[in-house]
Amino acid sequence: MAKSLGRGLRLGLGIALTWAGSTFAAQPPNIVFILADDLDAAAASKMEQVKALITDPGASFQKHYVNVSLCCPSRVSTLRGQFAHNTTIYGNNAPNGGFEGTYNKGIESSTVVTWLQDAGYRTAMVGKYLNGYPNTAPSDTYIPPGWTEWYSPNGGSPYSQFDYQLNENGTSVSYGHADADYLTDVISDKAVDFIRRSVTDHPTQPFFAYVATYAPHLPATPAPRHADALPGLQAPRTNSFNEADVSDKPAWVRDAPLLTDGQVALIDEQYRKRRQSLLAVDELVKRVIDTLTELGQLENTYVFFTSDNGYHQGQHRLESGKMTAYEEDLLIPLSVRGPGVKPTATITALTANVDYAPTFVEIASAMQPDWVDGRSLVPLFKGSTVGPWRQALMISHGEVDKGTARALRYAGLLEPDDPFDKSAQATIIPMFKGLRTADDFTYVAYLNGEYELYENTKDLRQLRNRYEGASERQRAKMASWLEAIDGTGGAALRAAEERPPKGH
């Protein structure tokens, strides 16, 4: 009651008030959510502006994971605060994935965006939405519920960064191949313009900007000004790169031959291009921070930087791609700065992309449905006392969809295949469910009856599968804990995450 009343007074009077010992700002905080595409935590750590402008003056999350390492399932989890087994979105194409599957299931009717809009926020989608949008929607300029403004590609080849169309608030606008048409820069322009107009034209109304780049997703086209940057850069040669001995791995990895010199050269080329394409994303981050500073809004705005999933490049003999249960694919960056965030804070609690929605809800004093699976990160990044927290996080890989666009004009909006993704679509990688635990174990149960178990503190690169040597008690604990989490949602799921089943 007090929380809702306090927010109403803020909006109604537009002045600072004290309620139950707390001082409220004159306006609820703004939220800027910057989401990169296929950005692993290791590559993100090289982004200088993100580090200087968000990570250093804010908090960074060291154990932040996705439930499914694939674009559309992750993005739907971001919007709904639910794991894939509750959204039922497992892939990038229909029937159980992509924009088409999401639209057909009616999932867009209730998302964090509709909840924020109901709480009085202006909202903007700028950049990549869901794979295949707007395929099968009522029109090419369809705008989902909850969005005050909308700037998202609806045609052409946005993954290439040029020659695409944007749905700009219901009007399709074509962009060509000029330097000024480079998509990351256009997304930057639109985001900054929305922020500026929100502050100047709607001074009493908070805003939420969802800013989603296509970089560094392949083909990872760098901005023309960065085409010669980072000469000679190679993918990191960790001890898991082109792993010599994979005899402990499941059959789908054991069957993979060592990478050839040509495959390694391609990985190096792609790694450099990905890093080059991130230079423009770094510049986008700086423009957003500079604009908020200029408008006097930086101290009343939360800025988040993260990715939809991780990415592997050569680890365990695998070509560039995602979808696996390995750390490179599941661990993603997350940094946040804003009111009350402790500078240079390092957070080691186990967190996930399902936590964004309840975090934004708490920031906005909004309301959310009981079926939300995630939990608010606000107590963590504000250094508050945190009650029982997640001790195990469910990870999964659903059936890879093999659907195609229903109309040729949508082909460029579908996910371009990475080399590894093509292998995955050939069913080389089996479906799996598993756990990532707070005490640093990764447990994977494949549908075909194979298993993996890694003790990540001692085996950072996951070189030794410990499942065969694990005790029956440990195996049973992991299996029963996974079953308990997988079979539920909402408060019951959160309770299951906090402790293993009795008897273990």
Automatic annotation (TrEMBL):
Entry protein name: Sulfatase
Signal peptide residue numbers: 1-25
Alphabetical list of Pfam families matching this protein: Sulfatase
Keyword Signal part of the UniProt annotation: yes
Keywords: Glycoprotein, Hydrolase, Signal
Domain of life, source organism: Bacteria
Protein family: Belongs to the sulfatase family.
Coiled-coil stretches noted in the UniProt entry, renumbered to this chain: none
Sulfatase N-terminal domain location: 29-364
Keyword Signal belongs to the record: yes
Organism: Ideonella lacteola
SUPFAM superfamilies: Alkaline phosphatase-like (SSF53649)
